[in-house]
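Because discrete structure vocabularies remain unfamiliar, we turn briefly to a single example record, giving the amino acid sequence and backbone structure tokens:
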Amino acid sequence: MAHLAHYREAHPLPYVITHWINLLSMIVLAFTGFVIHFPFLPGIMGICRGAHLFFACLVLVNMAFRIFSSPFIKSAPNMGTREKRQDMFVFLPQKDNRHQFGAWIKYYLFLKKDHPLSGKYGVPQKLAYLAVIPLTLFIAFTGFCLWVPTSDWFLMQFFTDLVGGVMAVRIIHYWTMWIMIIFVMLHVYLSIANGLAPLKMIFLWKEHGGLVYDPKTKNIIGEDDLSEEHA
């Protein structure tokens, strides 16, 4: 089965920018986190702590923008179409995703040759994206439990005492970081399982031709090789 076309309507420019911000932030956070946990580069601890705090806050602001702008920014809910609706519906249950969880798992495990015809995001993708919201909030919370200016705030102090002290919080924060790293790796795999076209779109905002999908009839209605008018 040929792949669906990738149009810019599927990834509006503001969300391409937020994706770039997330990528840069995750790289900086992972690197500075390792330096803070294992001080293998002497003389830059202060810089790493400052950068870690700044990019952690940037991720939170970026995520808040992504969530609260979704009712106002429109995007295509399916690949292969330029029809748009409020972006928040992309992450909510869609008729296009019904009864497809098993089919998607088989596809990702190479037990099924053709990917299911579904919404822009498959069922495992949606679950992963929704799960990353509480995961991000939790790792940020544990980070603020460790940051001296906020460590004695009531909620932070309560959690620290609950889990057994600062060292326990450090361990939780550290291993939550690994969960986040695994999520990023999973996110990359789920994104490119259908080919590299999504990477060109999300990084270069470059469209890629393919099959055209009609969201109303939920059928393939043709193929678009991206003529000059859509270049």
Q: What stands out?
A: Residues 8-50+62-136+175-230 form one domain. The chain has one domain: 8-50+62-136+175-230.
